[in-house]
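Hello forum,

I keep getting stuck at the same step: I have a sequence, I want structure tokens, and every attempt I make locally crashes halfway through. Rather than fight my setup again tonight, could one of you with a working pipeline run this one for me? It's a single chain of 554 residues.
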Amino acid sequence: MTLKLCVAQLNFVVGDLAGNAQKIIDAARTAYAEGARLVLTPELSICGYAAEDLFLRPAFTAACDDAVKTVARELAGLNGLCVVVGHPSGGDDRTKSVAVQRRFNAASVLSEGRVLATYAKRELPNYQVFDERRYFTPGHGVCVFEVQGVKVGLLICEDAWFDEPAALAKQAGAELLAVINASPFHVGKGGERIVRMADRARAAGLPLVYAHIVGGQDEVVFDGNSFCVDADGTLSGHAPAFKENLFYVQAVPAQAAIKLEASIVPERSLQADLWDALVLGLRDYVGKNRFPGVLLGLSGGIDSALVLAIAVDALGKDRVRTVMMPSPYTADISWIDARDMANRLGVVYNEISILPEFDAFKASLAPHFVGRAEDTTEENIQARIRGTLLMALSNKFGSIVVTTGNKSEMATGYCTLYGDMAGGFAVIKDVAKTLVFALARWRNANDPYGTGSNPIPERIITRPPSAELRADQTDQDSLPPYEVLDAILERYMENDESLEAIVAAGFDRADVERVTRLIKINEYKRRQSPVGIRVTHRSFGKDWRYPITSHFRA
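Reply #2:
Ran it on my machine without issues. Output:
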């Protein structure tokens, strides 16, 4: 008998237990009406991923238990339906100094008002952005349950990256592996998952369904991209990326192993994935935190142009406000291009000169600066005036300031504390400058959200980048060429290569010494920067934890 199952690829909100439970209930009812008798929801779907130190609060776990009971009760009348729900379970014994973990990252199989089985995740990741050993203890059991004659082995995310959990499920009689997941996006991660799950299916000799969460949560983004593979590792179904979807899979009996049948979406480019990740990350941060919109300083440069295009795709033009704040060093083409881009996208555009404030600051400080030439002090004053104006508008109107600094700037400290770093969310914090240019060109060639084609004036992309904080300034006055800087950054910061290894790869020693020194001495700035969207396998966020005070250089 063919089993129809549904992957409920849904966008949950951390801590919205009632809302998450209702979303599961609604999806299960819809899937049941479509003939599905097994519904898979993602890892920790009841509470959202990741709830971090909320897991340490007994009241939170108790509320999650109540939400699971609500789902079971509301779906009790759907005869023959099994719903897999992810949730925390258990607790721990705590003092102010010690915690003995008895809490699990669990999933329960609900059917006709009852909990048929509960499985605890065995393999707990503790790398990159994952910190599960802080909250959970490993499970040791196996969960195999039957739906319409098909024996399903349940695994949770990291379990499927190791041999033993799937092998034990097969020994217990599993004919199909159901893997529920919350695996943060980074560029290239989707393809890596499919390869690893295909390996797992072949090793176990079982077909596998990969049910994944979608949505933005603080700095991480979950891309959906649920899929299924047959026992020989062949991709047999693939859900859309970066959007909610009820993804249906038919499990068809066959002589050797169950065959899975589902729709397959077309392959996507890395730029399309990256764009959607940035759009979804911003949309969910603004929406889930109930901000009415965003505002940003539009300089006429490439970074703010890219952020504006992302913001309009994420929120629509009516929820985006731009402010151009010219100084004595702002070139005419900067405000001309800023006006042009704002007009192309139809957003609110204001101009506020910072000259009066800049002159006032210099006059106040003149008696104290006698005999000293102008330097970065005066450059930073301009940036801080702009930050103050943006934050004043944010306070008055409620919109959140989105900053426009990129990863190359975050790495090297080419940014001003309480100036261009002032804001609530850093959209391209994990996007290196060379990728900023590539994304700008991609967006000009594509209009994925129908908000306007070719939104970024060509001159913004082709002119040499400049902070415009002094006369005739360009970024390359202070930094190596971005092609060099970004390549060193990737090797040193993302891949942990040593200085000597980078030099041996052909980079100039002076450039390597300069870039790595800048990365080290600017940790204090990054600690004070806004949270931003993670899109690489290592960002300046949860997966970068270096001391500010340190005399070691790698």
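The mean pLDDT is 94. If your local run keeps crashing, start a new thread with the error log.
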